[in-house]
Amino acid sequence: MPLDYRRFNGPEDSIPYNYYTKEYLKSYHELHRELIDENGVRKDGRTLDEARSLFARTDMISQAKGSAYIELKKTKVVCSVFDPREIMHQNEFSALGQLFCEVKFAPFSCPRQRRPHAPDAEEKALSVALRKALEPTVCRHLFPNYQLDIFVYILEHDGACLAAAINAAGLALADAAVPMYDIITACSLAVIGDQMFVDPTEAEENLAIMNPEKDGINNGLITMAVMPELRQISDFRQIGSMDVNCIMKATEVLQKECEKILPNIQQILVLNVVNSFEQQKQLEKEAKEREAALNAKMEEWKTLLNAG
């Protein structure tokens, strides 16, 4: 990606000054106590089983075949999908089409450190995870030996960026009229001890992947992508250490949350179809008006010619 020379980017290895303050040097128990209050309410006012409000729309990028924008409060993601193109530098014929996914963080997106311009290990891992989640959803047998390009740009990261990227990619694929078996939805869950944080923020994710001071405590992060209509799990990604009972309970919670997202995506797609029909009617009406005006002009010219 080209550098932006219009602003001062700063050194790529720069670290914010607040990284050395007392807020960043707190212990595991101090950070855990600050996540929720005595009434079980999180910092942003949500309960443990409550997800953030979802805002989504399509047609964000005019150059792309399909595009989508997903916003989960401070987590903002843009996805663009382009037309299939022939796979370059490939000798063997591929019966299934391939997906090329690229996830990129904006330099100013992460609150803890500045992101470099060159792709790092986290961006490459997210790109692979996005591709694996989307492959079971897309009908790849319909475009053999072709490649579908999917680009995700994370404008702001405040937790659950992979789930937001999967939701944005699924909406962008539907907006681009790419054949799919089902609409894909995803959700994340952070496990800290015996507590499960649905749709975690960046601070909750950071504490979930930290090593607890005692062994045998469930801690980690789970992201699950689901095809709700087919009731199939497209991808399941776990970071951390959890027992079987915790994973089974988390799977049930994530499946319910993914099913809650589906009506919002369907509503957006239905509104797009309705708007396209209205635009088509408006274009047909304007075409008829122009044709009527042209016919009237022709009749006027014929009258003038006959009179002359």
From TrEMBL:
<keyword id="KW-0271">Exosome</keyword>
<dbReference type="GO" id="GO:0000176">
    <property type="term" value="C:nuclear exosome (RNase complex)"/>
</dbReference>
<dbReference type="GO" id="GO:0071051">
    <property type="term" value="P:poly(A)-dependent snoRNA 3'-end processing"/>
</dbReference>
<dbReference type="GO" id="GO:0071028">
    <property type="term" value="P:nuclear mRNA surveillance"/>
</dbReference>
<dbReference type="GO" id="GO:0005730">
    <property type="term" value="C:nucleolus"/>
</dbReference>
<keyword id="KW-0963">Cytoplasm</keyword>
<feature type="domain" description="Exoribonuclease phosphorolytic">
    <location>
        <begin position="50"/>
        <end position="179"/>
    </location>
</feature>
<dbReference type="Pfam" id="PF01138">
    <property type="entry name" value="RNase_PH"/>
</dbReference>
<dbReference type="InterPro" id="IPR020568">
    <property type="entry name" value="Ribosomal_Su5_D2-typ_SF"/>
</dbReference>
<protein>
    <recommendedName>
        <fullName>Exoribonuclease phosphorolytic domain-containing protein</fullName>
    </recommendedName>
</protein>
<keyword id="KW-0694">RNA-binding</keyword>
<dbReference type="GO" id="GO:0003723">
    <property type="term" value="F:RNA binding"/>
</dbReference>
<comment type="similarity">
    <text>Belongs to the RNase PH family.</text>
</comment>
<dbReference type="InterPro" id="IPR036345">
    <property type="entry name" value="ExoRNase_PH_dom2_sf"/>
</dbReference>
<dbReference type="GO" id="GO:0034475">
    <property type="term" value="P:U4 snRNA 3'-end processing"/>
</dbReference>
<keyword id="KW-0539">Nucleus</keyword>
<dbReference type="InterPro" id="IPR001247">
    <property type="entry name" value="ExoRNase_PH_dom1"/>
</dbReference>
<keyword id="KW-0698">rRNA processing</keyword>
<dbReference type="GO" id="GO:0006364">
    <property type="term" value="P:rRNA processing"/>
</dbReference>
<dbReference type="GO" id="GO:0016075">
    <property type="term" value="P:rRNA catabolic process"/>
</dbReference>
<dbReference type="GO" id="GO:0000177">
    <property type="term" value="C:cytoplasmic exosome (RNase complex)"/>
</dbReference>
<dbReference type="InterPro" id="IPR050080">
    <property type="entry name" value="RNase_PH"/>
</dbReference>
<dbReference type="InterPro" id="IPR027408">
    <property type="entry name" value="PNPase/RNase_PH_dom_sf"/>
</dbReference>
